[in-house]
């Protein structure tokens, strides 16, 4: 941290909380309330970190500015009369998620994270069958063949290749090979992959399930199934690789993404009989991974929870935000990392949200909250599920955390 | 001042030589105090007809972290079947072998446990584990740091680093992860599996590093001694579950060369190859070796019949076991140049030859190891069975006729292969107090736990005396945590949280820059991001830092 002539402060080695790659070499220039991201920050994160000099907005009830405690009481009152609240968004750090689960246990209602659809495409395999997965540092050092399944995940995980598959790795004996199956690397991805051997295998539209099935048959030594493209060379490369990794971002896979994942898992399964291989399922943004973990250790279930009489149950369809909103009378929207709009519905809205959120319809209660890793310290999880990221506080704009606000609402409950 | 007087109970406190002494136990401001230290108006608990013991300590139970969450995920049927009912002090969790954090605290507390230690804290997952452990009510916790498969340590050893440098590394890692002891899981084997080696015997070399499990073990045993950690190396040895591994275990005991070594879930490492099925009990040999070597302690990892889930850092072994998963699903993960995990759901069946013999081997070990101060009561929760089976296990140990009844139900071939019926020993209540309290406290270096002398923490349990020992230990009449009543008549009546135990031996600060470089180059993020800060442990409150020889 260095003092600038302008009176601002520059913070180095800032941990970025947004996409889940866990970059920790960001630089933030903080001057009063204003924030500019400097070196080490990808374009997307820079936009999310940026703040103007204007003070944070006030809390509002029915569109009118009110003190925080009035907004908290109004939220508590609305929830006290709620028949079926839907807790959605869930863009919060671990403490925020803990607080939301406690409140939901008290009021009843459903809980889901807004970025969870990809998670369930993965769980369709991991929960029912299991898989062999790996983490960033293993990929970085061991993976000699990195196969990207489907669309280039770096659209969501900006610095994926520079962080996870850099030019050199501790156990690599030659250049790393990176193969895109059914996806095309972006120009930026190609630049990050400089020094690796990059190959692209185009797959016809909606042909990814079929391609992965044929690949599975080939690596498992089953009778090859004819089809285009020819995947035999890739199958041979996988079998002779020391540590092949199949990576994907489930949220960018299509409607049949669960089947793509299932086939990719089978490829890895077959490879491990004679060599080593693993999956790298990249999980979602805004601490989806952390919310999933807290949900599991608190309720035993992986999000999409329904609380009734203080007991939770889990249903991937019934307790998705989409389904819950068909019946919900109140939407409790939390989004602390970015100004994400709540989904449209007929429900009343309590928004515990980023101060910059622009609403389609003024919420019944709006409480602006700070961003973990800027306005307060906190814990989020990396997208490979294992590593927790410590976030720090870098400015004081008078914004409370989700945990503080939600705990306040819970305590104000009759 | 808060004060509680427990009166009319028989105090069973083997650490202080008290075998059912009729005396008052007084807790003042959270600590056991002299009988005359409590004011006249102190809250009084009438323990007439009760046995008073210190809070029980579980030295080895997998209660938190990524592997616990994967277990919950894979065991969704169990989660749906067992939900924790709403209560004033209870959360909304459930499960049995895969309990939620909240349920874990409740179920342990009801049985009189007030300290439970997580024996497999993988460094890269430490932040998760601490966050989760903070949500377990009632229990003091702490983690044993998993070392011995981390590429950094193997690299140090392979490149001829001095013992001093290894010690500095170990101390750095303990400080960074806020842990209290060192655990080794399949020394070097998990790492070797990442290089596609499928087994690694004690003297077999890791192909990448040229380092043997023996070398890893001896290096870390020495580090623990020289850093002055209270708890010996907590070892999950090579060849877990492999018939014939009794020889590996005997060789491992010899490899300790007289230095303190704790063999965990030794039941899984006590298998011979005799008989038609090439699977036999090695309990007698292992017990004999333990009896002869006073530097060795063990916990048993008793197998209990029923559905559970096995969760281990030992992916090499779990990969081997994947075919016997019940239900048919399993999940493995290589983790961060550090370790791995493998989660395999499993049902132990009394009519299955192998499972029945595993059950018998565990009991043989309990009964043949003579010194109760060197054997600890565990099921390696959830791997041998959930911790809620402890009262049943205690009854098996204390009640020979009950044991024989249960034995009669076993698979016939297993009965023929076991000598259990020849063992007449029955554990006394005092021995149960040793294996669940006094001895675990001693081996962990917790001088103010596991006993009821003045100055001990105010974790006190009153059990109603009952000839049915299973009923007696299932639900305590009273449990006090730091002097507060948390359980009354077997029910939770208050909500309090425990502390996290850790050690922080000093290290040469040149290790900081070495680790900075390692993280920048190999790990791809910063060592300072990896290191936990004090305020990440229970919000900066509730840490107990134990002294070590190389004090910080």
TrEMBL record, chain A:
This is Formylmethanofuran dehydrogenase.
From TrEMBL, chain B:
Pfam families: Amidohydro_3. It is an enzyme of class 1 (oxidoreductase). Keywords: Oxidoreductase. The keyword Oxidoreductase applies. Its EC number is 1.2.7.12. It comes from the Bacteria. PANTHER family: COLLAPSIN RESPONSE MEDIATOR PROTEIN, HYDRANTOINASE/DIHYDROPYRIMIDINASE FAMILY MEMBER. NCBIfam families: one_C_dehyd_A. This is Formylmethanofuran dehydrogenase subunit A. It comes from Chenggangzhangella methanolivorans.
């Amino acid at each position: 941290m260095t003092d600038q002539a302008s009176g601002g402060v520059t913070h180095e080695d800032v941990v970025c909380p947004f996409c889940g790659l866990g970059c920790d070499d960001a630089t933030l220039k903080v001057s009063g309330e204003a924030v500019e991201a400097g070196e080490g920050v990808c374009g997307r994160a820079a936009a999310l970190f940026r703040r103007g000099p204007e003070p944070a907005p006030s809390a509002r009830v029915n569109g009118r500015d009110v003190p925080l405690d009035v907004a908290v009481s109004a939220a508590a009152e609305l929830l006290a009369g709620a028949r079926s609240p839907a807790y959605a968004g869930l863009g919060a750090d671990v403490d925020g998620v803990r607080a939301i689960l406690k409140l939901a246990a008290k009021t009843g209602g459903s809980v889901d994270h807004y970025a969870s659809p990809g998670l369930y495409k993965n769980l369709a395999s991991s929960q029912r069958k299991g898989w062999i997965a790996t983490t960033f540092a293993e990929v970085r050092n061991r993976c000699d063949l990195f196969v990207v399944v489907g669309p280039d995940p770096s659209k969501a995980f900006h610095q994926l290749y520079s962080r996870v598959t850099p030019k050199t790795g501790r156990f690599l004996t030659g250049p790393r090979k990176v193969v895109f199956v059914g996806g095309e690397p972006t120009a930026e991805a190609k630049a990050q992959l400089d020094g690796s051997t990059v190959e692209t295998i185009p797959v016809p539209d909606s042909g990814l399930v079929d391609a992965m099935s044929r690949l599975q048959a080939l690596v498992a030594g089953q009778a090859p199934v004819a089809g285009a493209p020819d995947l035999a060379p890739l199958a041979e490369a996988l079998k002779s690789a020391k540590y092949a990794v199949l990576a994907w971002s489930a949220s960018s896979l299509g409607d049949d993404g669960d089947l793509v994942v299932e086939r990719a898992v089978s490829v890895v399964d077959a490879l491990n009989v004679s060599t080593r291989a693993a999956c790298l399922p990249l999980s979602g943004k805004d601490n989806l991974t952390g919310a999933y973990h807290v949900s599991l250790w608190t309720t035993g279930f992986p999000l999409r929870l329904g609380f009734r009489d203080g007991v939770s149950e889990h249903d991937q369809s019934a307790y998705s935000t989409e389904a819950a909103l068909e019946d919900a009378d109140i939407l409790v929207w939390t989004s602390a990392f970015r100004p994400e709009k709540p989904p449209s519905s007929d429900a009343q809205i309590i928004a515990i949200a980023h101060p910059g959120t622009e609403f389609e319809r003024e919420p019944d209660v709006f409480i602006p909250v700070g961003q973990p890793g800027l306005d307060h310290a906190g814990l989020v999880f990396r997208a490979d599920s294992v590593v927790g990221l410590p976030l720090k506080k870098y400015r004081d704009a008078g914004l409370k955390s989700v945990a503080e606000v939600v705990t306040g609402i819970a305590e104000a409950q009759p | 001042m808060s004060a509680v007087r427990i009166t009319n109970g028989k105090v069973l406190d083997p650490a202080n030589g008290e075998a059912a002494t009729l005396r008052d136990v007084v807790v003042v401001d959270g600590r056991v105090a002299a009988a005359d230290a409590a004011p006249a108006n102190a809250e009084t608990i009438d323990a007439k007809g009760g046995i008073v013991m210190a809070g029980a300590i579980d030295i080895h139970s997998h209660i938190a972290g990524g592997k616990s969450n994967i277990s919950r995920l894979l065991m969704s049927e169990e989660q749906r079947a067992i939900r924790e009912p709403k209560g004033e002090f209870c959360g909304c969790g459930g499960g049995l072998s895969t309990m939620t954090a909240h349920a874990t605290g409740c179920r342990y507390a009801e049985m009189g446990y007030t300290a439970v230690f997580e024996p497999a804290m993988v460094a890269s997952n430490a932040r998760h584990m601490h966050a989760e452990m903070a949500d377990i009510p009632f229990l003091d916790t702490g983690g044993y740091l998993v070392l011995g498969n981390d590429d950094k340590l193997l690299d140090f050893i392979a490149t001829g680093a001095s013992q001093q440098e290894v010690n500095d590394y170990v101390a750095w890692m303990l400080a960074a992860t806020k842990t209290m002891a060192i655990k080794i899981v399949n020394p070097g084997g998990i790492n070797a599996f990442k290089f596609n080696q499928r087994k690694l015997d004690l003297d077999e070399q890791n192909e990448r590093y040229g380092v043997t499990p023996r070398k890893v073990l001896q290096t870390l045993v020495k580090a623990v001694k020289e850093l002055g950690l209270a708890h010996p190396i907590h070892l999950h040895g090579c060849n877990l579950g492999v018939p014939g591994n009794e020889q590996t275990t005997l060789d491992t005991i010899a490899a300790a060369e007289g230095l303190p070594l704790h063999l965990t879930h030794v039941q899984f490492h006590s298998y011979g190859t005799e008989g038609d099925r090439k699977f036999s009990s090695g309990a007698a040999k292992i017990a004999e070796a333990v009896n002869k070597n006073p530097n060795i302690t063990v916990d048993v990892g008793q197998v209990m019949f029923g559905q559970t889930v096995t969760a281990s850092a030992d992916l090499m072994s779990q990969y081997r076991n994947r075919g016997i998963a019940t239900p048919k699903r399993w999940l493995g993960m290589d983790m961060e140049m550090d370790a791995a995990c493998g989660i395999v759901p499993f049902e132990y069946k009394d009519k299955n030859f192998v499972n029945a013999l595993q059950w018998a081997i565990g009991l043989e070990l309990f009964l043949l190891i003579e010194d109760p101060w060197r054997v600890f009561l565990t099921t390696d929760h959830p791997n041998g069975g959930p911790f809620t089976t402890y009262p049943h296990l205690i009854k098996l140990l204390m009640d020979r006729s009950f044991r024989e009844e249960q034995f009669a139900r076993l698979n016939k071939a297993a009965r023929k292969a076991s000598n259990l019926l020849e063992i007449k020993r029955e554990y006394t209540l005092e021995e149960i107090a040793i294996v669940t309290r006094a001895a675990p406290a001693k081996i962990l270096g917790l001088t103010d736990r596991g006993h009821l002398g003045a100055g001990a923490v105010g974790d006190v349990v009153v059990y109603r005396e009952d000839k049915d020992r299973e009923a007696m230990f299932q639900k305590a009449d009273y449990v006090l945590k730091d002097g507060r009543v948390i359980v009354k008549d077997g029910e939770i009546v208050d909500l309090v949280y425990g502390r996290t135990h850790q050690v922080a031996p000093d290290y040469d600060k040149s290790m900081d820059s070495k680790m900075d470089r390692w993280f920048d180059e190999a790990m791809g993020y910063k060592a300072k991001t990896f290191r936990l800060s004090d305020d990440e442990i229970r919000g900066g409150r509730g840490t107990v830092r134990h002294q070590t020889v190389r004090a910080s």
